[in-house]
Write a structure and sequence with these properties.
Porin; 5 helices; mainly beta; 24 strands
Length: about 500
């Protein structure tokens, strides 16, 4: 065995860089590359002396310490994310009262600033759970950790009156890592739907006029684990298995006409949990050395599930204390269904430009949902939903020394119809005049600021996005919603269990 040790001493520090630390024999190629920092002369001698067993143990011990130090903040953030997801509201939309609430887009991070495209995106520096086949784009030494937060400013108008609200929340946590050969995996926590609303409606009798107050909170989240395999140089397949779970609560409060100190509160709460599957395919065709086209397909099968509803009906006093329990029940085996989802996308990219288009279709019509919760019928409750999005990203020179030249500028558009209809009431007499939905228009811009690790050359990204969405009603007497959103996400790119540095 022969040891090759070119050594570089740096200024006043006791620092050694082993630039080519390799083991050779007559049949073996170099097996490791190391960098040492602040090593004592004794520690160095242990490694230098033929890389004996003590040197190997020393190296492994330090590598284990580095792994633990690297994973600890990630696990801490994961625990925080789980708690935040369980408690968050995430929306102020009045339309989240119906169905499962406001649906979340599977696109995260940088993809959101490009209109929400994800099916045809294949990039090694970002997690893309929208198409699980994309995971295999990762090289064998890369680990990506991605998380995002957002804030929202909402404006509601009915033609004559306006109201605004604020909210913010943790959006997602995801990671991506190599497994074996051309196989890579991903793990994360994502939102599926969000419920958060509070509004009042006047009701009249022959003698009195009073106001009913409606409020709700909760939503569905999914913990997913995914895997992808690059079958050939141009073809990859992947799948996600998710545990879908959540609580949704709807409350209706009305004052008692014959009392100034009592109110009646009716609450319906249900818990949902089931397993969800997503399948993906990506085909990449190289046009030249710098250009390629990627086509993506996704499919999520229908979910047939059952849940339990907990209805409560009680009287409270002015202090909020329950004075009388009118109803407390448990309704089991209530049918809940989620639809088939079909999606397709295509993207073009070169060294400077990425352009993509996505389309999806969900078969919500006639999905089973308890009439007890909204008083609607299966014929009028849901609509088959389609969504179209387009976006682009431009970077002037990704290899430039100038930060401004390396910033990634993004923009995108989206359009969708509502999967859920709502009951429409006349503003003066509160009579039910029909059911209908809305159309959603979205516009997004953003940019990504790259940060390069000076030791390993890996590029991490700070993504900043701005979005505007308009919920345009299809019928009279419905509320128009405008939402302004700012989002921050961080995509951390690290070497997978190997940082080439130990102390």
């Amino acid at each position: 065995m022969r040891t090759l040790l070119p050594i570089l001493a740096l200024r006043h520090h006791v620092r050694l860089q082993i630039l080519n630390f390799s083991l050779f024999n007559n049949k073996t190629k170099p097996i490791c590359w190391l960098q040492a920092k602040n090593m004592s002369s004794l520690q160095f001698k242990k490694i230098h002396s033929g890389l004996n067993s003590q040197g190997i143990v020393f190296y492994l011990q330090n590598r284990m310490k580095k792994v633990i130090k690297s994973l600890f903040p990630l696990l801490t953030l994961w625990a925080f994310a789980s708690t935040a997801f369980a408690q968050q509201v995430g929306t102020n939309s009045l339309y989240s009262r119906y169905g499962y609430g406001q649906l979340s887009n599977p696109a995260i991070g940088a993809s959101e600033s490009m209109g929400g495209i994800s099916y045809g995106l294949r990039r090694s520096q970002e997690v893309n759970p929208g198409n699980p086949a994309s995971y295999s784009s990762l090289d064998t030494l890369t680990f990506v950790f991605d998380y995002g937060i957002s804030g929202h400013y909402s404006i509601y108008s009915d033609g004559s009156n306006k109201q605004n609200r604020y909210n913010g929340n943790l959006d997602y946590v995801a990671m991506q890592f190599p497994l074996i050969g051309k196989i890579a995996g991903s793990f994360g926590l994502l939102p599926y739907s969000k419920v958060g609303y509070s509004f009042g409606r006047e009701q009249s009798t022959t003698d009195f006029t009073y106001q009913e107050i409606y409020s709700g909170s909760g939503g569905l989240s999914q913990v997913y684990g995914g895997i992808a395999w690059e079958l050939f140089k141009f073809a990859s397949i992947g799948a996600n298995v998710s545990y879908l779970f959540g609580n949704i609560e709807h409350t209706r409060q009305l004052p008692l006409i014959n009392s100034n100190t009592l109110a009646r509160i009716k609450t319906d709460k249900f818990r949902f949990s089931d397993v969800k599957f997503d399948f993906g395919l990506q085909l990449t065709y190289p046009l030249s050395r710098e250009e390629s086209i990627t086509m993506g397909l996704v499919y999520s099968p229908k979910i047939n599930s059952e849940s339990t509803i907990y209805p409560y009906d009680r009287l409270i006093n002015s202090s909020g204390q329950v004075t009388q329990q009118l109803e407390s029940d448990t309704l089991t085996h209530q049918s809940f269904q989620l639809p088939n989802t079909f999606g397709a996308g295509i993207s073009y990219r070169n060294d400077n430009l990425l352009v993509g288009i996505d389309g999806s279709y969900q078969t919500w019509k006639d999905m089973q949902y308890p009439d007890y919760l909204d008083g609607m019928t299966s014929e009028t409750r849901f609509n088959n939903r389609y969504r179209l999005s387009a976006g682009a990203e431009y970077v002037n020179d990704p290899l430039s020394r100038s930060l401004l030249q390396r910033i990634r500028f993004r923009a995108g558009l989206s359009f969708a119809n509502s999967y859920n209809n709502v009951n429409i009431y006349h503003p003066t007499n509160s009579s039910l005049v029909g059911t209908d939905g809305f159309k959603e228009y979205g516009f997004n811009v953003g940019f990504g600021i790259p940060f390069r690790d000076m030791y390993n050359g890996r590029v991490s990204l700070l993504n900043i996005g701005f979005g505007y969405s308009l919920l345009e009603p299809n019928a009279t007497y419905m509320i128009k919603e405008e939402v302004f959103k700012i989002s921050l996400s961080m995509s951390i790119n690290e070497l997978w269990f190997f940082k080439r540095q130990f102390e």
